[in-house]
Write a structure and sequence with these properties.
This protein is mainly α. It has one domain.
Length: 42
């Protein structure tokens, strides 16, 4: 049973890592990076 669960989790993880990152998510990361860098400067 554990082998089946492990195999399914690996398949699921492999599928997810092959997907493109949505543009909206990239935009949010850029906003967070800018916010984080401006906070560190103050």
């Amino acid at each position: 049973m554990h082998d089946i669960i492990g195999e399914k989790l690996r398949e699921y993880y492999d599928d997810i890592t092959k997907e493109d990152v949505p543009d909206r998510f990239i935009e949010l990361l850029k906003i967070l990076e800018k916010s984080s860098s401006s906070t560190k400067e103050n």
